[in-house]
Amino acid sequence: VLAEKRSLGSRDGPPHLVVLVPLHSRAAAHDALRLLQSQDSAVVRVDEGRAGGFALLCPRLKQRWRFVTAQAGDLHAVLDLAKVADSLLFILDPADGWDSAGEHCLSCLFTQGLPSYALAVPGGTDLPPKKRIDARKKLAKAIEKRFPEAKLFPLNTEQESSLLLRHLATQKQRHLAFRDRRAHLLAYAAEFVPGQESDLVGTLKVSGFVRGQTLNVNSLVHIVGHGDFQMSQVDAPPDPLTLNPRVVKGRKRSQDMEVQDDSVNGTDEMEEDVKVLMKADPNKQESLQSEVVPDPMEGEQTWPTEEELQEAEASLKASRRVVKVPKGTSKYQAAWIVDDGEEGNQEDDDDDDDDIEDDMMEEAVSQEGESSEEEEEPAEEECETMTISECLRDDQYDEKVEEDEQMLERYKQERMDEMFPDEVDTPRDVPARVRFQKYRGLKSFRTSPWDPKENLPRDYARIFQFQDFSRTRKHLFRQIEKEETEGASVGWYVTLHVCNVPVSVMESFREGKPLVLFSLLPHEQKMSVLNFLVRRHPSNSEPVRAKEELIFHCGFRRFRASPLFSQHTSADKHKLERFLRLDAALVVTVYAPITFPPASVLLFKQRGNDMHDLIATGSLLSVDPDRIVIKRLVLSGHPFKIFTKTAVVRYMFFNREDVMWFKPVELRTKWGRRGHIKEPLGTHGHMKCHFDGQLKSQDTLLSLYKRVFPKWTYDPHVPEPVPWVRSESALPVQEVEME
């Protein structure tokens, strides 16, 4: 622990990276930067040539810092810098602390993972001394809920800035699990070399200090917000933030000796003052393949041999029998006709069981046939007739009113789903056996078996699955802790040659946005099914339907996807939720690249004006394609005539064939009675039902189930959000919650 604490910001470690985050529109971040730069003569200042960034070198204290200012209102920049920062320096307003945009920023930072931090309050000197003390007490009371036991540092003089620097250097460092197990760096300089084929794609040379773990050139790197890439080589240029040039020269000589040993392997080509540490080995380099290319002929059977054909003919001849059939009967129909002798041995009491078995056989045959028609009927699967009143809309209304109408409709649907969960009306124009042909009945949702490999969609042929995910994760983490990997050690200033990078990455860096790189663990570039455990954020209460496009911030990744919501239970089947609940934790399921937990997740919803609203927060639960998400439909009927244990039910079905089709499915009532359909009455859907007790005048329900899968809507390109609209109101203390 002492060695880790002493290495941060020292000669052998990376500079202490401090990110300034202004939390109020009136927060004087420029004054704080000016005071931090105006230290005594022992501190050497090195400007980076970019706005809001500088370095402080102090040979007397043997410390070096790098300060970077996050752009006000740029949420992506704040979150990206917080992923790699050693410390966050929050700049508060002396009167209000933080505004609505600062509150939104703090909510996202607390969920993503907060590194070590300090609170600085520049300004406030224009107030009278008595009012200054009262404002300080009010601010200290306001920040108690967000930052318990936090100390406020005034930042108005050089002495106060020296105390703040000492606190940043000596405070205990917080660890973020998702970055401690991966090598990462914040770009100090970058250069783009266009490729030979196109100027839009080329090699990006990124220079920075290695942090976290040793960086191997054969591993993949993820540029936050841009995607996964391969590296061709790693160079060791001179350190631009040296504490003592003499010490650095001696250290470079020792590194030169290491490089000279490597030069035997063919890395003699070096530029002046730039040493090539290592080059990628094509045999050991990780592949960029993220999906499996499915072979459509993989499941086909081979043509049988002559011996197998002869054996089949012999078995057919041996099993043939002579039966009497009606005229015009085909061979297939004749195979199902039972002899009179076989029928005579059966009792009359088993007739009902035979009818049930025949119905179940027909249901199984229809389910086998529908698998080939599944892709042809996507519209029928998505359409449901909900028992809601249709909202009248006028085409002459302007766009804003139409959005209000749509939001009102969503609120109504969410309310109806809470009052009558999963209930739908049986359609009148389509037979129920056709509309619900992909559903099945279950004796018990908790104990009835469901094969996780049954009727998988085509997208499952494109993903990767672990035989035992937890065992693979433990093995990888054990290797990181015990085994020493070859590569650039923590604290080295290196230049990474990243291949096939689009020029947009360099353009983003020139605009002043941070360029953050993370090395990937094995398999983390491959696609699979990720499950996140999230809870609704209290700041947002708008209804969010399943399969709506959301923006995910998972660990060091950002992507867009349309998720499924399901209940978080310990069973092997999990019921689908149509809306993101306000009062319960739900599991969100999407197709996404594999990430090894622990990793935090933030869910955003993009508005029409390109603003991102935080709707849910949580963490990565598992990477498991076998997690079964079941969609339930409830058909309701009305008791028409009630006897002791039997009743005539209507309005559940509207023709006799549907009653016979759903006869094997068990019925239940809202008060716990269970029963089954005995027989249909008439031709308009009335049916006689038998229950296990006295039936009262409540609805009769029939539950149907179907497994659902997420849509393949993964998109790694997330548009930049517009700055958050700041509110100048005082800090809402009652809404702040400790996360």
Describe the protein in words:
- The protein has 739 residues and is of the alpha+beta class.
- Among the domains are: 1-170, P-loop containing nucleotide triphosphate hydrolases (Rossmann fold); 177-242 and 274-291 and 465-476 and 487-525, Beta Barrel (Elongation Factor Tu (Ef-tu), domain 3); 423-441 and 630-707, Beta Barrel (Thrombin, subunit H).
- Helices cover 26% and strands 26% of the residues.
- Helix 3 (75-84) packs parallel to helix 4.
- The longest helix has 23 residues, at 351-373.
- It starts with a helix and ends in a 32-residue tail after the last strand.
Task: State the main characteristics.
739 residues, alpha+beta, Rossmann fold, Thrombin, subunit H, seven-stranded mixed sheet, six-stranded antiparallel β-barrel, 18 helices, disordered C terminus, U3 snoRNA binding
Mean of residue pLDDT? 77
Major beta-sheet overview: 7 strands, mixed
The CATH architecture of the domain at 1-170 can be named as: 3-Layer(aba) Sandwich
State the fourth-level CATH superfamily of the domain at 1-170: P-loop containing nucleotide triphosphate hydrolases
Shape: globular
Adjacency order of strands in the biggest sheet: 2-3-4-1-5-6-7
Number of helices: 18
- Please report the distance between the alpha carbons of the first and last residues: 27 Å
Low-pLDDT segments, ≥5 res: 246-272, 341-397, 728-739
Structural class: alpha+beta
Roughly what percent helix? 25-40%
Q: Calculate Rg over CA atoms.
A: 33 Å
**How many beta strands in the DSSP annotation?**
31
CATH class of the domain at 1-170: Alpha Beta
- Estimate what percentage of residues fall within beta strands: 25-35%
CATH topology assignment of the domain at 1-170: Rossmann fold
Main location: nucleus
Pfam family, one: Tsr1_G-like
GO molecular function, one term: GTP binding
Function: Required during maturation of the 40S ribosomal subunit in the nucleolus.
